[in-house]
Amino acid sequence: MKKQENNIRHLQATLSGIIAGAQQHYMHATINKHRGFNKLSDRMMHENAKEMAEAARFIHRIIDLGGIPDVQFEKWPVHMNIEEQLKVEYQEQLMALQVLNKIIASIEDDNVTKQIFQDYIADEAGHTQWLKQQLDLIESIGLKNYLSNQI
To answer: CATH assignment of 2-148?
Structure first.
C-alpha cells in the first residue's frame, strides 16, 4: 500500500509539471504566432498537445490506482524573447529528466506506472534534443537567420 501511495504521489507531482509545461508551450506558441513565427508556433502547439495527452495518461493511472487526480498548478515563466524561451525550457528539461530518472528508479512492483514514466521520459528526451538543436542552430547561424526560417 505504501508503494502504491508513493507511486500516486509521483504521478500527481509529475502531472502538475506536465500541465504547467503544456501551459507554457501554449503561451509561447501564442506569442510566437502573434509575432509571425508560425513554424515555431506550430511546433510549440504540437508540444502542448503531446503534453496534454500525457497528462491524460497520468490522470487515468492515478484513478486506476485508487487516487484522486489533484493538480497543484505551478507557475512557469513566460518569455517574449524566443532565444530565452528555448534556453530556459532546455534548462528546465534537463532538470526534469534528472527528476524523472530518480522517480523511475524508485518505482517497485508497478510495471504499468513505470512504463508510463519511461514513455514520458523518452518523449521528454526527444524534446530536449530538439531544444538543443535549436539553440545550436541559433549559435551557428545567428538569431536573425534562425528566426527568418521560423516564419
So the answer is: 1.20.1260.10
